[in-house]
UniProtKB/TrEMBL annotation, chain A:
Pfam families from the UniProt entry: Cytochrom_C_asm
Transmembrane segments: 23-44, 117-139, 151-169, 176-197, 209-237, 271-294, 309-328, 335-353
Recorded topology in the membrane: Multi-pass membrane protein
Keyword Transmembrane among UniProt keywords: yes
Coiled coil location: none
PANTHER family attached to this UniProt entry: CYTOCHROME B_B6 PROTEIN-RELATED, HEME EXPORTER PROTEIN C
Primary subcellular site in the record, as a coarse category: membrane
Listed name of the protein: C-type cytochrome biogenesis protein CcsB
Cytochrome c assembly protein domain location: 145-359
Compartment annotation: Membrane
InterPro entries: Cyt_c_assembly, Cyt_c_biogenesis_CcsA, Cyt_c_biogenesis_CcsA/CcmC
Keyword set includes Protein biosynthesis: no
TrEMBL record, chain B:
Compositionally biased region (Low complexity): 559-571
Classification via Pfam families: ResB
The protein's name in its UniProt record: Cytochrome c biogenesis protein ResB
InterPro entries the record matches: Cyt_c_bgen_Ccs1/CcsB/ResB, ResB-like_domain
Annotated region described as Disordered, given as residue ranges: 543-591
Main location: membrane
Keywords: Cytochrome c-type biogenesis, Membrane, Transmembrane, Transmembrane helix
Tagged with keyword Mitochondrion: no
Compartments (UniProt record): Membrane
Keyword Transport assigned: no
Membrane topology: Multi-pass membrane protein
Lineage: Bacteria, Bacillati, Actinomycetota, Actinomycetes, Kitasatosporales
Transmembrane segments: 58-76, 112-134, 204-223, 481-500
Domain annotation ResB-like: ranges: 56-536
Length: 366, 591
């Protein structure tokens, strides 16, 4: 390249970088609007006062037994005679037979409207943020995962993407919206203030296609683990709530209002488990890909560098969680606590290790 | 069902026992036993201990313990990672350090207690895997268990009254299930079928793969070797022990394990960011080498980069460091050349490759009085010197304005004293400073081509030029292939284990009291999944086509909303409520 061409390229890159910054700030603005819409959804939803859980837990047995908890009816309606047989589903031993809550809007029409607006705004913000990440990638001409700023903006984009994906698959996850967007705003706030790094290229140790594989799966795993951990946390609250009701206790008004609208503890538990279990093989792969990359870059596959150590700890913690779910006396709440601890390990590996320890994984500023 | 909470899953009532058998063995997980103490002497105790060790509970505790035990190693400096940091820590914490030493906290991952945890875990794992494998083989050889008496108790259930004969229905069901790749057979009045054995196989493969990986790592530790070699541009290396600057190896390593090869460094290239906030950050490091394998191998040329080691046999040659080697000519008092254009490698001190080291003239030098003596120079080198008045730190890593600063000494370098000494440091014990006109240590800054004349006609030093050097690490890690195989198997096994459902389906067809055939279908999965009822619905729809519904007495149609099916006489409604809580939907895992 001639000198002029180099300068031109540098100017384009700087242009792209500033476009990326603008997009990220715009995404934050839209997320903030979405945040208020979610709040409105919860507030309007609190107008509905249905005590479904208590009703389900105290309903007389005979009435319950006649009406199956859930019926799955696959053949969309049809005439009575040709309809396929209906399948009756029973919940397993030990789980409470509680219906899922209606979601944040609590069945309130206005609440639902705000909820839909919030989701639409989230989709818009997601698109803008994704564009910001892509522009950043274009400006540095590599994958946007060279420093913690880039890692953060990619991370929140993927977390929102995972959640929107689950919504698109018609999973019962809309209740998670407010928590998710709150953390996304925190994550982005941290990114643009503390972690901001001007766009730049990578040190030679980071040049490898394993970077793309290892870091992209790590980000995806973190985002999905986050959603799983949120499910586990919600499970713990809802489970205490149900247990209190089953004992004949009377939970507070706020707890009732909020928790009545969440899915049942059994659903939350399953939701959290499915996500964590589905991501665990990928997390295993991430660590192995990292080891292969380390083998190429630093001449050893595993050196107990703090980052490596903490991804190992995270891995073992998640393995412990999966084990707990198959171990008598550890299912339910204890397993959920393990899921939270495991996610805390992941977070610590991401933030704590970069700031507290210096290891081979610290480069490009932070 | 209604009043069930997590705690009241007590015992299985007698009427549900047959379901217990049908629901069992969906997993080969060890059954939990209460840790009651044995009364049976030594054998009893050993057996008890073994049972405990191989129980799921202890496996879980060991797993959690392992993750806890890994933490200190990330907080406390480790000898294996950064020995300098450990030394520094020892100096600053004189009371803590000996305690840490006793506890092995400076080498956590090879300490007794860390090893104890993972060895116990792996003993537990083997003790768990072997019986599980046998059990699984038994399950594969056996047949799916017969239908429980009351299918209504299963997590997914459906029923209808059909015009077809019971026998016809069973035949159709058997064919259908087999076509769907269930293992199915007729047992009594019902078809019993099972699918998803790959789940269990995957789980076993995963755990076995963990053992393979551990053995591969242990093997690698015992036989590994790792050596470093610094090569100046144009220099060469052949892979024998004596050629290494330093060398580490596992306990069972022998010299014959070294792969025979040699290589020569033709050129090292480093490029750096020229502008911006990250000015000076390295962009590329490349070593252009010529290598040959075996004693008389053909010469080949290649490039070694930071992420792209050269692989020869089991060995990998990594590019790990680089620096500069000023080329020096030294003349003695008589003008005789005692060091001829020798490249002296210096050690980099910072990111901009400010370097330091020592130039040692050991033989052949005679001073102004004609006596034999040795010369020593403390050397500082800046690839980019900021100019007069700037600091003695390099401003950029590339050779933009090289400057060499020398402090001159003469006397005895102490190299023959038998104590090994660093080539980068001067042992000044028996050295005397050259003095300048003010009586201070004689030092001078040189640009390429400049010569420094030593005081008192003691000779001269010429800075001829600069060569680059590259540091290479040669490692041999046998067993890494097996570790990779284990890792891949672990991931595949894990995916099978977590994504595949093992489930059972039963189809019962009997003639009801009114002479009409009653078809009942039920499904059971290892964990509650929406997939089991969905699949049962699909199967039921298909079977319904082959065994169409019979008009109901009450004209309710086959798709009646409730499965109370008067014909079956077994509606959930007329059960004793206390027994409802105990449907063992999770099969073998009931407490
Ligand atoms: C080296 C340490 C171990 C690790 C990292 C590990 C990891 C895992 C993981 C991730 C799972 C979940 C996969 C699944 O649910 O199918 C699992 C399941 C299982 N593990 Fe382990 N495990 C270890 C040791 C053991 C030991 C010592 C035992 C025996 C006592 C054992 C028995 C089992 C069983 C029976 C399951 C299946 C549970 C079920 O049926 O859901 N594991 N293990």
């Amino acid at each position: 390249m001639t000198l002029a061409a180099t300068q031109l390229a540098a100017a384009t890159n700087e242009n792209l970088a500033s476009i990326s910054n603008t997009l990220i700030y715009s995404a934050m603005a839209v997320y903030t609007l979405a945040f208020f819409a979610y709040i409105a959804e919860w507030i309007f939803g609190s107008r509905s006062k249905v005590g479904r859980t208590a009703a389900a837990l105290t309903a007389p047995d005979t009435a319950k037994a006649d009406a199956p908890a859930v019926t799955v009816n696959k053949a969309g309606g049809g005439t009575a005679v040709l309809e396929r047989p209906k399948v009756v589903v029973r919940s397993s031993a030990g789980s409470r037979d509680v219906p899922d809550g209606p979601g944040a809007h609590g069945g309130d029409e206005q609440g639902d409207l705000f909820g839909r607006v919030a989701v639409s705004l989230t989709v818009l913000a997601f698109v803008v943020e994704a564009a910001g990440v892509v522009a950043r990638a274009a400006s540095v001409q590599r994958a946007p995962w060279g420093n913690m700023y880039e890692f953060n903006i990619t991370f929140s984009t993927v977390a929102v993407g995972v959640w929107l994906g689950l919504l698109a698959l018609r999973k019962n996850v809309r209740w998670l919206g407010l928590i998710l967007i709150t953390t996304v705003l925190l994550d982005l706030g941290l990114a643009v203030t503390v972690l901001y790094t001007a766009s730049d290229q990578l040190v030679p140790a980071l040049h490898s296609y394993w970077l793309y594989i290892h870091v992209s799966t790590a980000i995806f795993c973190g985002a999905a683990f986050y959603v799983g951990a949120a499910g586990a946390l919600a499970y713990l609250f809802k489970d205490s709530y149900e247990a209190k009701l089953a004992r004949g206790g009377k939970p507070g008004i706020l707890a009732t209002s909020v928790l009545e609208r969440l899915p049942s503890s059994a659903s939350l538990d399953k939701f959290s488990y499915r996500i964590n279990a589905a991501v665990f093989p990928l997390w295993t792969f991430t660590i192995i890909a990292g080891a292969i990359w380390a083998g190429d870059a630093w001449g050893r596959y595993w050196g107990w560098d703090p980052k490596e150590t903490w991804s190992f700890i995270t891995w073992v913690a998640y393995a412990g969680y999966l084990h707990a779910r198959a171990t008598a006396g550890w299912k339910g709440r204890k397993a959920a606590y393990l899921a939270l601890i495991a996610f805390a390990c992941w977070l610590f590996n991401y933030y704590g290790v970069n700031f507290l320890f210096s290891g081979k994984h610290s480069y490009a500023g932070v | 069902m209604s009043k069930t909470t997590a705690s009241d899953t007590g015992q299985v009532p007698a009427e549900d026992q047959d379901l217990g058998a049908a629901g069992s063995r969906l997993s080969t997980a060890p059954q939990e036993e209460q840790p009651h103490l044995p009364a049976l002497g030594v054998v009893g105790w050993v057996r008890w201990f073994w049972r405990q060790l191989t129980s799921m509970r202890v496996a879980l505790l060991l797993l959690l313990l392992l993750s806890l035990a890994a933490i200190p190693g990330s907080v406390i400096p480790q000898t294996g990672i950064d020995a300098l940091k450990v030394a520094d820590f020892r100096q600053r914490h004189t009371t803590l350090a000996p305690i840490y030493d006793k506890l092995g906290l400076f080498h956590v991952y090879s300490s007794v207690w860390f090893s104890a945890i993972y060895i116990l875990l792996f003993v537990s794992l083997i003790g768990c895997i072997v019986p599980r494998t046998w059990q699984f083989v038994g399950q594969l050889r056996g047949r799916p268990p017969a239908a429980p008496r009351r299918l209504t108790r299963l997590p997914a259930y459906t029923t209808w009254r059909s015009e077809a004969d019971p026998e016809q229905v069973r035949e159709a069901a058997l064919a259908l299930l087999k076509k769907r790749r269930f293992r199915a057979h007729v047992a009594g009045d019902a078809v019993a079928a099972e699918k998803g054995y790959l789940r269990e196989a995957g789980n076993l493969v995963f755990h076995i793969a963990l053992i393979v990986m551990l053995v591969a790592f242990a093997w690698g530790q015992l036989y590994k070797s790792e050596g470093n070699k610094l090569i100046v541009q144009g220099g060469g290396f052949s892979n024998t022990l004596t050629q290494y600057d330093d060398f580490k190896s596992g306990n069972l390593f022998s010299q014959d394990d070294l792969d025979p090869f040699s290589f020569r460094l033709n050129k090292f290239t480093g490029t750096y960011e020229l502008t911006g906030p990250n000015r000076g950050t390295p962009r590329t490091y490349e070593a252009d080498v010529t290598y040959s394998v075996g004693a008389y191998g053909k010469e080949q040329r290649t490039t070694i980069k930071v992420n792209e080691p050269l692989e020869i046999g089991d060995s990998k040659v990594y590019l790990v460091s680089h620096g500069y080697a000023p080329v020096i000519t030294v003349r003695d008092a008589r003008g005789k050349i005692v060091m001829n254009k020798e490249a002296v490698p210096l050690l980099p001190l910072d990111g901009n490759v400010t370097s330091s080291g020592a130039i040692k003239v050991m033989d052949g030098y005679r001073n102004a009085k004609g006596e034999k003596e040795q010369l020593g120079f403390q050397a500082f080198f800046l690839p980019t010197y900021g100019g007069k008045g700037s600091t003695m730190l390099s401003a950029f890593p590339a050779l933009l304005n090289p400057m060499l600063a020398l402090n001159a000494y003469h006397g005895d370098l102490g190299v023959d004293s038998g104590v090994p000494q660093s080539v980068y440091q001067l042992n000044k014990k028996k050295l005397t400073e050259f003095k300048d006109s003010k009586g201070e240590l004689f030092k001078q800054q040189l640009k390429i081509g400049e010569t420094m004349t030593l005081p008192g006609g003691a000779g001269s030093v010429t800075f001829e030029g600069v060569k680059e050097w590259a540091g290479f690490q040669v490692t041999r890690q046998p067993g890494s292939g097996w570790a990779l195989v284990g890792a891949v198997a672990a991931i595949l096994g894990l995916a099978a284990s977590l994504f595949i459902q093992r489930r059972r389906v039963w189809v019962r067809a009997v003639t009801g009291d009114d002479g009409v055939t009653v078809v009942e279908m039920a499904g059971l999965g290892r964990s509650e999944s929406a997939k089991v009822p969905e699949e049962l619905g699909d199967l039921a729809a298909l079977l319904y086509d082959r065994a169409p519904g019979a008009p109901d007495a009450g004209d309710d149609g086959p798709g009646a909303d409730t499965p109370d099916a008067a014909a079956s006489g077994d509606a959930p409604g007329d059960d004793d409520p206390s027994s409802r809580a105990s449907v063992p939907a999770e099969g073998a895992e009931q407490k």
